Amino acid sequence: MPSGCYRIGEFELNVSRFEVRRGDAAVKLERIPMELLILLAERNGDLVTRPEIVERLWGKEIFVDTEHGINTAVRKIRAALGEDAEHARYVLTVPGRGYRLIVDSPGTVDVEAPAADAVPIVPTVRRAGRWPRALAISAAVVGAAAMIRPDWARNALAAATGPRPIRSIAVLPIANFSNDQGQQYYADGITDEIITTLAKNTSLRVTSRSSSMQYKNVARPAPEIARELGVDSILEGSITTAGKRVHVTLQLIRASSDAHLWADSFDVDASSAYPLPPTLAESIARAVGASAHPSAERRVSLEAHDAYLRGRYFWFADDFDDAAQYLERAIQAQPDYAKAWSGLADVYTVRAVAGLAKPGDVMPRAKAAVRKALELEPGLVEAHLTLSGLYLFADWNFDLADEEARRVIAASPEFAEAHHLRSYIMIARNRFDEALAEQRRSTELDPFARPWALGFVLMRLGRLDDAIAEFGVRRQAQPQDKSVRMYGAEAFRLRHLDQASVDELAALYRLSNNEPLALGIEQAFKVGGARAASEFTLRQLENKARTTYVPPLDFARAYARLGDGERALSWLEQACRDRSPRLVYLRTEPDFDFLRGNPRFDAVLRAVGLDAIPAATATP
Question: pTM of this prediction?
Answer without folding.
Answer: 0.72
